[in-house]
Amino acid sequence: MTLPTSPVATVGPVKIVGTGLLGTSLGLALRGAGVAVQLTDASPSALALARDLGAGTPAGEEDPEPALVVVATPPDVAAGTVLAQLAAHPAAVVTDVASVKLRVASAVEADGGAAAARYVGSHPMAGRERSGPAAAHGDLFAGRPWVIVPGAHSGDDALVAVRNLAADVGAAPVTLGAEEHDDAVALVSHLPQVAASLVAARLQDAPPDALGLAGQGLRDVTRIAASDPQLWATILAGNAAPVARALRELRDDVDAVLEALETAADAGPSAPGSTGPLARLVADGNAGVSRIPGKHGGPPRRYGAVTVLIPDEPGALGRLFGDVGEAGINIEDLQLEHSAGQKVGLAVVSVVPSAVAPLEKELQERGWHLVVR
Amino acid sequence: MTLPTSPVATVGPVKIVGTGLLGTSLGLALRGAGVAVQLTDASPSALALARDLGAGTPAGEEDPEPALVVVATPPDVAAGTVLAQLAAHPAAVVTDVASVKLRVASAVEADGGAAAARYVGSHPMAGRERSGPAAAHGDLFAGRPWVIVPGAHSGDDALVAVRNLAADVGAAPVTLGAEEHDDAVALVSHLPQVAASLVAARLQDAPPDALGLAGQGLRDVTRIAASDPQLWATILAGNAAPVARALRELRDDVDAVLEALETAADAGPSAPGSTGPLARLVADGNAGVSRIPGKHGGPPRRYGAVTVLIPDEPGALGRLFGDVGEAGINIEDLQLEHSAGQKVGLAVVSVVPSAVAPLEKELQERGWHLVVR
């Protein structure tokens, strides 16, 4: 399977400071596109590994001046490193990949001077719990958003250079202000992480029988609770004010829910002031979740679901999707559900609504056992 | 594809009171197993629909006495209906399917008398947001837990009858006390629902650009926020005390997180008292989520993941799973990820760890583009 390629606009050399997951992946992506890459890292072994993986060449005294510097250090040293790189390379555009932007943007602005025109912040929204160069891959950014955060004094050349970088590694560039970005990630990334961890933390002392009743809802809500504690402590602390704002609003809602529950517990579930606020909470959640974009950034779409019983044997899912594919129907989304104590599973296949009936007919004809819910 | 069948132990007739989603599905399952079913419902149209779907026969004056009565009314009238059915059928075992058990169990115990020996509570953990007889299906309970909640005075005959019922409709019986059950569902079902709705509610007024950064984490955490407000208000209010207990503990954790964030916001992210509590939250969440059972109720297992780039065209997933199946490898779990603005998706295929390397090799040989994260 060959992905379509497009011409590369990034002018090298690109110097990457910090060869962790993001830095090394960036180096691999750029090398794959034929761009010269210089690497540095405080750790000689991380640097050697990135070099050996093919992410670039360790920076040396004789190197040509880089056209673009990407600071891919841990977020707590990003600001200082950006300032140092702006000073060390007076003709280069400098960007950073920290997941929180205001701190770095403010440091560059406070430093003053003409160098600020050469800085534009970035936040490639890519990567996972795994870190370090060994987990790096040139496709890390494929299809992911890459937020471009212009500084107060960023020049057009810098903006173009960073946008080209994002596009050249297969990412989808989107431009936001620093505070706008930090508020956004607080809401759509940091608050969900906190919520997942809060719910999962309640399970630590749960009786085993209680955990035995766990269904797909709990699994969905707590999936990202398996994240790295140190990494997330740094991220949350680095975006503390916006996360605190969002979390305070959530806590106000928690208090309203608690008041309604206490009314129901004391005066019965039909008492005034009990079900009303609870229904409002869930209705508000309905409204919120319907605003999350669908595939490819388009408006949210309601899909139809076809639920199929799957025997637990190799190839079963393969046969199912082979059959769906032969019907010429595209799978928009898929969830597998685990059963408690039974050797079957359920595959919930989401398709466009007009495809539901044809798909059901097709699958039933081929002997699949459908479940209507 | 034929599912294995086992002999049916339930002795009919079974009388089902309330032909909504659960009652009608139960009727369909029992009729499929050859058991005689009598139906009643306060709504003549719901009753007629259940009959027409094949769930049983509307109860009449000339009917033989039922051996087993299943109360499948809305939860707020379950207790009263159970008492009425115990009185109306002095030889029958009576069970109910309300998702909260203490209220009903207490009512039966308070009523006193020999009838209590004939009552055992049930909670089939099946069904979805859709309700009503039209959504019913005989396989609703397949592979799902069916909690059996003995009353204080339940006799052995009643316990056996209800366990047989659960097994005959394909469910996995598990026995818990009423308070134990209500605390369990508060923790593993109700609290996650509240958390998902709380996070989703914050999105109502979010700027569109913020929503454009939404990733898989937000989608996972808020998936169940699309639930029915009225239904959930009734469920939460009916289990108010246990849910309030769990939510209060969560709120205490929220306060600790807020304190750490406020320290970080005021004194910087490296200040004492900021990252420590945040790391502890995520670590506690790690511990909690690792206790959720894996497939088939076994201990949690760590799977390896292979991430594959999928072009957005019909049949692509089918080809992928055909290839996985031909490699003889079982797919343990699957997640599809949506990209922002790109016509590709990612399929994250979970397999047992020993299968990761062979699968990667197999897929690469067949031309699939793997992403390492």
Automatic annotation (TrEMBL), chains A, B:
The protein's enzyme class: oxidoreductase
Gene Ontology terms, MF aspect: prephenate dehydrogenase (NAD+) activity
Domain ACT: start-end pairs: 305-373
UniProt-listed InterPro entries: 6-PGluconate_DH-like_C_sf, ACT-like_dom_sf, ACT_dom, NAD(P)-bd_dom_sf, PDH_C, PDH_N, Preph/Arog_dehydrog, Prephen_DH
Keywords from the UniProt entry: Amino-acid biosynthesis, Aromatic amino acid biosynthesis, NAD, Oxidoreductase, Tyrosine biosynthesis
Signal peptide: none
Catalytic reaction annotation: prephenate + NAD(+) = 3-(4-hydroxyphenyl)pyruvate + CO2 + NADH
Enzyme Commission (EC) number: 1.3.1.12
Pathway the protein contributes to: Amino-acid biosynthesis; L-tyrosine biosynthesis; (4-hydroxyphenyl)pyruvate from prephenate (NAD(+) route): step 1/1
Gene3D superfamilies, sorted: 3.30.70.260, 6-phosphogluconate dehydrogenase C-terminal like domain, NAD(P)-binding Rossmann-like Domain
Domain Prephenate/arogenate dehydrogenase: 12-291
Recorded family membership: Belongs to the prephenate/arogenate dehydrogenase family.
The name this protein goes by in its record: Prephenate dehydrogenase
